[in-house]
Amino acid sequence: MSERPFKTNQQQKTGGNPMRPGGGPMRAMQMPVEKPKNFKGTFKRLLKYLKPYRVHLITVFFLAIASTIFNIGAPRVMALAVNKLQEGFLSSNEIDFNYITNILLILAGMYILSSLFNLSMGLVMSGVSQRTVRDLRREVDLKFSRLPLSYYDKHPHGDMLSRVTNDVDTIANTLQQSLTQMITSAVYILGYIVMMLTISPALTLIVMATLPFYVLVTANVAKRAQKYFAAQQKELGDLSAHVEEMYSGHKIVKAYNMESESINKFKEVNARLYNQGWKAQFVSGIMFPLMNIISNVGYVFISVVGGIWISGDMLKVGDILAFIQYSRSFTMPIVQTSNIANILQSTIACAERVFQVLDEDEEEPDSMENHFDKKLEGSVEFRKVSFSYSPEAPLIKDMNLKVESGHTVAIVGPTGAGKTTLVNLLMRFYEIDSGSITLGGKDIRTITRSSLRRHFGMVLQDTWLFNGTIRDNILYGKEGAGEEEMTDAAIAARADHFIRTLPEGYDTVLNEEASNLSQGQKQLITIARALLADPKVLILDEATSSVDTRTELLIQEAMGTLMKNRTNFVIAHRLSTIKNAETILVMDKGSIIEMGSHHELMEKDGFYADLYKSQFAGYEI
Q1: Whose CA is closest to 497, among 505, 507, 508, 509?
Q2: What DSSP state is assigned to residue 27?
Q3: Same domain, residue pair 411 and 515
Q4: What is the DSSP letter of 509?
Q5: Domain finish residue from 485, 519, 534
Q6: Are the C-beta atoms of 561 and 492 separated by less than 8 Å?
């Protein structure tokens, strides 16, 4: 029943763009590759989200081809200018500078067109990726609103946040960067081979002979580097967790003089992170020197053979220069393709985690026919209600309970007794296995959940206030409420006075976790919010356990106003606060074992009496 949202560090890292500054072909190795369970099925499902934008994708494909072709063709055109210069020098004739100028203008035009096509491709693909993840995020958000409370009870909030933020961001980055790189890399590889063949098939065979060595180096280095990068991510997570833990508990750390131990722990984890990071960077750094050695060996062979053929007038200088440029550039798209394969694996794994949420069983849908806006009386009745979180462990069996409108029912018992479960069933956060629960004589299963919950108000021990003004937080209780209604609710909740003493009054913006207010002030605001909602049934989780005595009395006064003329269910922790309740339910292991007023239960000298005496041991009752 805690209302406090779970916060977590975003420790999942996404890979960078191997083509942009700060990236590089080894950038993808810095992200541990999580293997998807069903690559083919998840990939097909992800493609369905791109289907509405297929015209855009076709446009991207042709723009990528156009940009690549102009870029690849440029060295071949430049070779014409070099060849013309060679002819002029060898024949001692006047060099045709008009021809060379025209070639240079053509080259400039090709590079400009290539850049424009590349820019257009990036803009279109950016729009596609952002629209796709917008659709995906919207679908996940709608799914969260349809999931039952049991899903939230079973899954860590941090994991849920990671799926809708980190995982979707990874998908967006891959769609925007890696998809276009995949197209351009494939075109570059094919284009380089074709252009080299047009110059010299024999020299092309020399270049192709080096390919197995490139693949061997890339595969072996990537395999070893991946292990160290995975260890680096683990140590980074441990370091982040330690820093967050020490920061959130810094008062306790200082109170017990544990600063030195905290610093030593940080040094220890930081040293491990350094070692793993150094190893990862060292191993990955070996890749390019090795590839340069292979490339240089091929370059030597090409230069020797090319020089011989130039001297025999079989090739011209411009052709050899263009060929060398193609051969030197040939390895880059190969490495990029290898990195994209790793990124794609991680992306599909992220998509799989998002789709797991979308495939979860939803709450049983409400029928549109049972929408019910009329206010019901506050009487509540449980008739032979049975419930279990799992079939093998029944919790509530044949519970019978009748609460008259306007009465207060206190629910007490040890942890796990079923106190919160009772409230969850009443508000249809969980559905009962058998029996019935009625509100104002109407079975709650015949009312839509939204209509039913308009009849309830909640004030819990863990206050929940969102980042916004005090006015916004109070108005959260009733849609369309006016300023006067809000102020009346704040006055009745004993909150108006302290709110007006704040510099900005009702326009005071609450910071993260509303830490600029005291616990008691936050609780008074939640009471004002509940008063504004004007519910028929009120659910209270004792709200005064962490405030001073004066504030406790103020909150109790406000809660007294809130509880007037309403049916109240009070989950009690301190038994002194529920002595005046008309009915006290004593629960244990999902069953009501005792029921009655405070005096009746004390006279029975049973479970409740023992519980009460244990809280007031040493005091006269």
Answers
A1: 505
A2: G
A3: no
A4: B
A5: 534
A6: yes
Tell me the one-letter amino acid at 81: A
Domain-embedded: residue 25: no
Helix axes 287-311, 331-358, angle to 10 degrees: 140
Residue type, 1: M
- Distance between CA atoms of residues 222 and 397, nearest Å: 59
User: Which tokens belong to 70?
Assistant: 């102009």
132-187 confidence digits (pLDDT tens): 888 888 888 888 888 887 788 777 776 777 778 878 888 888 887 777 888 888 88
- Same domain, yes or no: 273 and 224: yes
pLDDT average per 10 residues of sequence, the chain (621 residues): 35 35 39 64 86 88 87 82 71 73 88 90 88 87 84 76 80 81 83 85 84 78 75 79 81 84 90 88 79 79 80 77 81 74 77 86 68 69 85 78 86 77 84 87 84 82 82 88 88 87 88 73 86 85 62 75 83 75 82 85 86 64 41
- The candidate with the shortest Cα–Cα distance to 275, out of 223, 239, 240, is 239
pLDDT in tens, 87-109: 766 666 677 778 888 888 988 99
Same domain, 295 and 202: yes
Question: Using CB atoms within 10 A of its CB, is residue 501 exposed (0-12), middle (13-18) or buried (19+)?
Answer: exposed
Number of neighbours of residue 136 by Cβ within 10 angstroms: 21
Between strands 380-390 and 393-403, the pairing is antiparallel
Dihedral angle sign, alpha carbons of residues 252, 255, 261, 264: positive
Q: How far apart are CA 430 and CA 180, in angstroms?
A: 47
| The pLDDT value given to residue 280 | 81
Domain limits for position 161: 30-358
Domain with residue 240: its CATH number is 1.20.1560.10
Could you give the C-alpha distances from 152 to 4, 72, 428, in angstroms and in order? 13, 54, 15
Q: Are residues 513 and 440 in the same domain?
A: no
Report which residue type is found at 131: R
Domain count, the chain: 3
**How many C-beta atoms lie closer than 10 Å to residue 617's C-beta?**
6
Is residue 8 included in any domain, yes or no? no
DSSP 37: S
Q: What is the DSSP string of 471-501?
A: HHHHHTTSTT--HHHHHHHHHHTT-HHHHHH
